[in-house]
């Protein structure tokens, strides 16, 4: 019996499958991955969207809308700023009709995001200025910091402060001078200086990535 040869995938189908395998849609639904996923979408729009087959372009445009729809539910300090970066890429890369749809979705989500933040502040505990919260949280251990971020909107925002996580990264991986297995490594010093200081760099995400590799 002759062996049936497997038909090669069409380039259009292959590109769409490779995009699905990136898992950007799933990452957008995880608050801690939302900023990175928005950044990847923005980079893809600027650098490669025009060259993608139509099926892959449709998936990218769908994830853009998903990113904007999820914005009100994402309680991280970089949610709005990274969504703005994505919006700028949308205005450059998407065709007129899809761009108008995405911009409209973004505007609705920004309004909902502000309303939700206002409700959280009014219905929550007496308001504590953000800088004071961040200062208080700087004395917490990691488990307590994560738990504090689950209390309310304003506490979550403070617990995700990038400078706070940069400090914790330095303390946890730098000052101990230990490897992940708690074995001293001769001549090796971990510090935040070895990590790129990009404007949208997430120290919390970097902490999670490095800790997961231990």
From TrEMBL:
SUPFAM superfamilies: F-box domain. Coiled coil: none annotated. Residues 122-168 form the F-box domain. This is F-box domain-containing protein.
């Amino acid at each position: 019996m002759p062996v049936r040869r497997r038909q090669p995938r069409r380039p259009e189908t292959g590109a769409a499958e490779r995009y699905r395998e990136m898992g950007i849609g799933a990452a957008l639904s995880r608050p801690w991955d939302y900023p990175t996923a928005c950044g990847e979408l923005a980079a893809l729009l600027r650098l490669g969207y025009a060259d993608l087959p139509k099926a892959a372009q449709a998936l990218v445009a769908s994830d853009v809308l998903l990113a904007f729809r999820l914005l009100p539910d994402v309680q991280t300090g970089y949610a709005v700023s990274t969504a703005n970066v994505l919006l700028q890429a949308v205005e450059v890369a998407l065709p007129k009709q899809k761009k108008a749809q995405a911009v409209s979705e973004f505007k609705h989500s920004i309004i909902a995001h502000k309303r939700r933040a206002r409700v959280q502040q009014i219905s929550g505990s007496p308001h504590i200025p953000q800088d004071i919260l961040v200062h208080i949280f700087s004395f917490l251990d990691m488990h307590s910091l994560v738990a504090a971020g689950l209390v309310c909107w304003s506490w979550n925002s403070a617990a995700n402060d990038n400078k706070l996580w940069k400090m914790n990264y330095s303390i946890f991986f730098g000052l101990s001078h230990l490897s992940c297995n708690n074995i001293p490594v001769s001549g090796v010093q971990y510090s935040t200086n070895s990590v790129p200081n990009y404007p949208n760099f997430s120290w919390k995400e970097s902490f999670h990535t490095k800790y997961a590799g231990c």
